[in-house]
Amino acid sequence: MQTAPARIRPMRAADVPAAERVCDDAFYALDLATTPPSLPAPSRRTPERSATWITRTTRLVESDPGGTWVAEDENGLLGLATSLRREDVWCLASYAVAPGRQGAGIGAALLAAALTHAEGCSRRMVSASTDPRALRRYHRAGFALHPQVHLSGEVDRDRLPRVAGVRPGTAADRPWMDDVDRHHRGGAHAGDHVSLAERGDLVVLDDRGGYAYASPGGVALLAATDVDRARTLLLACLAGAEGTFEIGHVTDANQWAVRVGLDAGLAPYQSGFLGVAGMAPPSPYLHDGALL
Fold it and tell me: 222: phi > 0 → left, psi -120 to 50 → alpha, else beta; which?
């Protein structure tokens, strides 16, 4: 029996829980197919991560209604694409098609819909998986693809030098933090700081030379005005590690972060790509996978 064609329409707040399930299914299936045996076995999102995804995506439906889309047929949701534009930069936040429905043009249609939200932005960013179908779509859409490294493991505290000039941040720091972001990517994080603060505690440099969101388990985002300041921030984040610590989304332009991670005893492996158009990979800058 012929499969009914998918319909592409704007995402609504009521769609978000079902979209989260589609997204989790798609990425879990991809991880099962692509994770090397030497790495830990893939797992589904925890309830906490699912709740974070739902909260963040609901905010994007409200703030960027022109950038959030779903595909559906008579049986329900088949795929999604969520994106945001902040000043001169457009970012693809989430993009997935349900397992078993891929390869039928649904992903291409969703990406085309999301890219209408990028009109007028000279800079574009996407954090991509290793899915070759998605990578081909990004390439055709004009993105240059830069491999990313992920570092993970227990921190060897004896290797960490002491750092100074770092303090907890507050919402009052956001204006100058947004200026750092404008320099790196052409747009402030603005209201997205609310979602980033749910990923980790804000730490900043006393001289306003950089900031990071970090938890005992990893760094969500780090931006600094130069490499020395970025290194200081990352060392401060590593000092608060508990158990396994993750440094993700490290492009070749951020080799300083690879060196810091290796010196701290973490192990590196290749993890997806950063796609950019109209810009080079930001540095010194470790992006958030969704809000970039």
Answer: beta
